[in-house]
């Protein structure tokens, strides 16, 4: 196998594993801030107990996010050295900002969050929780800026520079704020955040629904579930708008990515939207497609008759990403998103009617829906990153000519050989398999153990007195 | 001072911060097997429990800053030291998760497995960082593009191994002094004995490596002609090293810890002096070395990053101070501990 394919596989594998954790900790961070805030406000002990429980789960996920995140930072240099030389001036500065403005904040207060319960007062603890949550959000800001710059690069110039008397080219920053607020940053950032909120909310609902089904920690589970439900409903609806805005942005700046997402091989007068399908590169058609005629034209151009360009017009200039993967990942993400809108609205309606917690089938759905939320986050990443191939830094079209891009194949490390990469894939494969098993096992254990709440709390008139005598 | 030199210095500060802070984490990991029974082991583990993650961020930020300020050096070093870095990554992962996972189940086999992984990864990383420093001083074969052209065998030799042992002994001493603050009674007495053993090991390796550097790497000393005031640091470093046994004898561990921090900082400083103006030294063809001027980003980026540092560093020091203050003193185990 060749170094390029192996390095791409290695990157995809390690980042997809890493990306299980950051959205979850961002989402859970919001939940923690909410719970502790409620506790400070209402002084109801149940919120503190809930916060303590979710903090333990947060800690486990956070540790795995940190451990697998360092790998990502290293891989830019180990496997993509030519890319690093080309973009270091721009991409590197965003990455360094993540370190200094986000990671230090998160980790500085993490100790307090996890171990500080009995050492600092509730206000200070709330502050620490808030700082950790903000740190997570800052981190997503900078990493999304860095990634978005690769997708829609602006604010830089391609300039010559000299190493040992020879001239090479690289991207250099000329306008910092233009780089930060490049055309895709805000759209993508909001999309990432909402994805994280949805995941965090579904995670909380999953565990709460399970307690409800098992008849355990009922008061805790009901409050957690409804809080999660509100966050999930609002975020899912907002995600629809955000997704639409994203698709328009992609159609403008990365037309070949949109063509791959929607499987547009040939430009037609009016472009339909596939609900499902099986893109086939050989026949250049989408087989077994279920299509809404003219819908994509409408979504992109507010008009059913304006064509969205296909590969027949785009490929020569922009190249063609792997269509099948991009198409399926994109449709999977959207399909799950739609399911979430339907199911959360239904649950809200039932909650309003007061019968939500009697619907066992719906609670079982929510127990497992968190897996869909993970899948949707991952699929979104796949659609975004596979869809930009063959470019590692997307070019822009100036006066009909592509400028400034870098092909993925040109970003590789020259010093690295295939067997080294293969070795590292096996190495990380083993470690990550172990981590995955441990993660699931320990989560299961923590969930089985449940929050530290006296089961009789709800009927006990003097819970605090009972506590005092313990 | 130009921007490139400023960032060379700032990277040195990040590296020194990392070595001082995560250094005692490694030492704690290496001393962990000498704690007896589950309670003592938990005490040792929890001495760094709330702190290790923040300490590791210094490395992450060092990596990010190297990428941004000197992308050529970042690309060359990271792709050149492929196997070594994968090993380091594996150790960082195992160290992190052994801290996190150990307490999660009560079975003896579970805990002893994570205990040994914690020890092994701490030891391996300490050694690997030393190897890397040794290799940076000796140099690796680069071509005229600054790309590593060699194999892993070009990165390992007697000198590198000696520096690796120096690094192990230094972190062992540093960690032992740290643990004296964090433990009580019998365990503390044992750690006090380890501070002395650690110092003896460190002193031995320090003298060996200093002599070896003097003999084998003339360019490491040559820079002193450009920076005669760097001799002041050499003198201060000798004083700091000499101060450690004095403090250990008087049971003044705070000063001993401060001295060992100074020793680590001074060694990082001298590493910088020895490398300057190179970031990556090429050997045998020294003209291919990547200097801080070849390898740097544009001045615009360096200026932006300086602004980051100016805004960010006071906060960082604030968080760090606060975290260490909150968790000061001997470890008391409670239900939130690992």
UniProtKB/TrEMBL annotation, chain A:
This is Cytochrome bd-II ubiquinol oxidase subunit 1. Keywords: Cell inner membrane, Cell membrane, Electron transport, Heme, Iron, Membrane, Metal-binding, Transmembrane, Transmembrane helix, Transport. Pfam families: Cyt_bd_oxida_I. Belongs to the cytochrome ubiquinol oxidase subunit 1 family. GO terms for molecular function: electron transfer activity; heme binding; metal ion binding; oxidoreductase activity, acting on diphenols and related substances as donors, oxygen as acceptor. It comes from Rubinisphaera italica. The lineage of its organism: Bacteria, Pseudomonadati, Planctomycetota, Planctomycetia, Planctomycetales. GO terms for cellular component: cytochrome complex; plasma membrane. The keyword Transit peptide does not apply. Signal peptide: none annotated. The keyword Transport applies. The chain crosses the membrane at residues 20-41, 53-71, 91-114, 126-145, 190-213, 225-242, 329-351, 363-384, 421-443. One of its GO terms (biological process) is aerobic electron transport chain. It is a multi-pass membrane protein. It is found in: Cell inner membrane.
UniProtKB/TrEMBL annotation, chain B:
One of its GO terms (biological process) is aerobic electron transport chain. Pfam families: Cyt_bd_oxida_II. One of its GO terms (cellular component) is cytochrome complex. The keyword Ion transport does not apply. Keywords: Cell membrane, Electron transport, Heme, Iron, Membrane, Metal-binding, Transmembrane, Transmembrane helix, Transport. Its main location: membrane. It is found in: Cell membrane. GO terms for molecular function: electron transfer activity; metal ion binding; oxidoreductase activity, acting on diphenols and related substances as donors, oxygen as acceptor. It is a multi-pass membrane protein. InterPro entries: Cyt-d_oxidase_su2. The chain crosses the membrane at residues 73-97, 117-138, 158-179, 199-217, 229-245, 257-280, 300-322. Belongs to the cytochrome ubiquinol oxidase subunit 2 family. This is Cytochrome bd-I ubiquinol oxidase subunit 2. It comes from Rubinisphaera italica. The lineage of its organism: Bacteria, Pseudomonadati, Planctomycetota, Planctomycetia, Planctomycetales.
């Amino acid at each position: 196998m060749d170094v390029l394919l192996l390095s791409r596989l290695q990157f995809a594998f390690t980042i997809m594993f890493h990306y299980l954790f950051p959205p979850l900790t961002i989402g859970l961070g919001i939940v923690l801030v909410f719970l502790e805030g409620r506790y400070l406000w209402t002084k109801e002990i149940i919120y503190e107990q809930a916060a303590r429980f979710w903090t333990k789960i947060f800690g486990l996920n956070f540790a795995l996010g940190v451990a697998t995140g360092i790998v990502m930072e290293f891989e830019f240099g180990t496997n993509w050295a030519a890319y690093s030389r080309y973009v270091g001036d721009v991409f590197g500065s965003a990455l360094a900002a993540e370190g200094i403005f986000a990671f230090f904040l998160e980790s500085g207060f993490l100790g307090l969050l996890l171990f500080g319960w009995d050492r600092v007062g509730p206000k200070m603890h709330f502050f620490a929780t808030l700082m950790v949550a903000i740190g997570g959000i800052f981190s997503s800001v900078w990493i999304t800026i860095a990634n978005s710059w690769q997708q829609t690069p602006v604010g830089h110039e391609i300039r010559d520079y000299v190493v040992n008397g020879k001239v090479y080219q690289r991207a250099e920053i000329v306008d910092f704020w233009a780089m930060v607020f490049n055309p895709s940053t805000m759209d993508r950032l909001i999309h990432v955040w909402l994805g994280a909120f949805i995941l965090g909310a579904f995670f909380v609902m999953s565990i709460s629904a399970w307690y409800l089904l098992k008849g355990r920690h009922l008061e805790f589970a009901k409050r957690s579930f409804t809080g999660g439900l509100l966050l999930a409903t609002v975020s899912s609806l907002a995600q629809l708008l955000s997704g639409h805005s994203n698709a328009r942005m992609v159609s403008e700046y990365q037309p070949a990515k949109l063509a791959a997402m929607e499987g547009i091989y040939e430009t037609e007068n009016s472009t339909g939207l596939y609900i499902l399908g099986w893109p086939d590169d050989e026949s250049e058609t989408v087989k077994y497609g279920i299509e809404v005629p003219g819908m994509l034209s409408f979504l992109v151009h507010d008009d059913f008759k304006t064509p969205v360009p296909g590969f027949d017009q785009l490929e020569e200039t922009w190249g063609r990403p792997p269509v099948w993967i991009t198409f399926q990942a994109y449709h999977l993400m959207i399909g799950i998103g739609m399911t979430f809108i339907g199911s959360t609205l239904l649950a809200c309606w039932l909650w309003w009617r007061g019968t939500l917690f009697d619907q066992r089938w719906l609670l079982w759905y929510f127990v497992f829906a968190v897996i869909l939320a993970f899948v949707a986050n991952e699929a979104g990443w796949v659609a975004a990153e596979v869809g930009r191939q063959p470019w590692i830094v997307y070019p822009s079209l100036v006066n009909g000519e592509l400028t400034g891009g870098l092909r993925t194949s040109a970003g590789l490390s020259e010093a690295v050989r295939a067997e080294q990469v293969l070795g590292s894939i096996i190495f990380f494969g083993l470690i990550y398999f172990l981590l995955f098993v441990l993660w699931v096992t320990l989560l299961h254990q923590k969930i089985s153990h449940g929050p530290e709440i006296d089961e009789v709390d709800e009927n006990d008139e003097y819970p605090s007195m009972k506590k005092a005598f313990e | 001072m130009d921007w490139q030199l400023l960032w060379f210095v700032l990277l040195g500060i990040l590296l020194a911060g990392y070595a001082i802070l995560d250094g005692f984490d490694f030492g704690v990991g290496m001393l962990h097997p000498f704690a007896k029974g589950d309670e003592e082991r938990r005490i040792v583990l929890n001495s760094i429990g709330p702190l290790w993650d923040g300490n590791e961020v210094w490395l992450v930020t060092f990596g990010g800053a190297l990428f941004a300020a000197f992308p050529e050096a970042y690309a060359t070093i990271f792709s050149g030291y492929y196997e070594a870095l994968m090993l380091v990554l594996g150790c960082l992962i195992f160290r992190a998760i052994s801290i996190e996972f150990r307490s999660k189940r009560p079975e003896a086999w579970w805990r002893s497995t994570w205990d040994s992984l914690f020890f092994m990864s701490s030891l391996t990383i300490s050694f690997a960082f030393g190897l890397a420093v040794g290799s940076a001083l000796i140099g690796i074969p680069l071509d005229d593009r600054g790309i590593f052209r060699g194999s892993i065998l070009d990165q390992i030799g007697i000198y590198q191994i000696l520096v690796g042992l120096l690094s192990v002994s230094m972190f062992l001493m540093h960690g032992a002094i740290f643990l004296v603050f964090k433990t009580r009674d019998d365990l503390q007495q044992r750690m006090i004995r380890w501070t002395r053993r650690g110092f003896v090991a460190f002193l031995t390796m320090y003298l060996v490596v200093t002599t070896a550097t003097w003999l084998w790497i003339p360019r490491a000393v040559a820079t002193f002609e450009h920076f005669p005031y760097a001799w002041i640091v050499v003198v201060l470093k000798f004083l700091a090293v000499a101060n450690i046994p004095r403090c250990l004898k008087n049971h003044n561990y705070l000063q001993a810890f401060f001295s060992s921090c100074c020793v680590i900082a001074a060694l990082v400083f001298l590493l910088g002096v020895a490398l300057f103006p190179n970031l990556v030294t090429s050997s045998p063809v020294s003209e291919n070395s990547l200097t801080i001027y070849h390898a740097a980003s544009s001045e615009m980026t360096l200026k932006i990053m300086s602004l980051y540092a100016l805004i960010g560093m006071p906060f960082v020091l604030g968080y760090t101070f606060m975290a260490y203050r909150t968790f000061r003193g001997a470890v008391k185990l409670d239900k939130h501990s690992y």
